[in-house]
Amino acid sequence: xxxxxxxxxxxxxxxxxxxxxxxxxxxxxxxxxxxxxxxxxxxxxxxxxxxxxxxxxxxxxxxxxxxxxxxxxxxxxxxxxxxxxxxxxxxxxxxxxxxxxxxxxxxxxxxxxxxxxxxxxxxxxxxxxxxxxxxxxxxxxx
Length: 142
Prior knowledge:
It is built from four helices and four strands; from the N terminus they run αββαββαα. By secondary structure, the protein is α+β, with helices and mostly antiparallel strands. It folds into two domains: about 1-55, no CATH class; about 55-140, no CATH class. The strands form two sheets. The chain has a two-stranded antiparallel ribbon with strand order 1-2. The protein is flat, with a radius of gyration of 22 Å. About 5% of the residues are buried.
């Protein structure tokens, strides 16, 4: 059943396109298939195992987006509703407008709470400190 996948996986490792991979297939009854191939890091000898840990980083966005949209489809979430009922931290958000002469952050109340649509389309106004000198400065000040 998975012979084509296994052949493609082995070819990707053999050609050097990937160092290694771990795959699993599950259904409502549990895991039905697992396979690992290659090494954990290019140029190293440690083989991939079924319990190799991976840093997924932004890949979680795809998984969470699908889950959230399924909840919208089922009527349990709204794309444009206020999320502060689910996430109380969203109720009284502040927006960083800059810094005073004393270096203190200048904040104002957000005009509205972010929606699921805002979160999924990266238009919520949230940012990453490692990409924003102002957020790094705010973090240091607070």
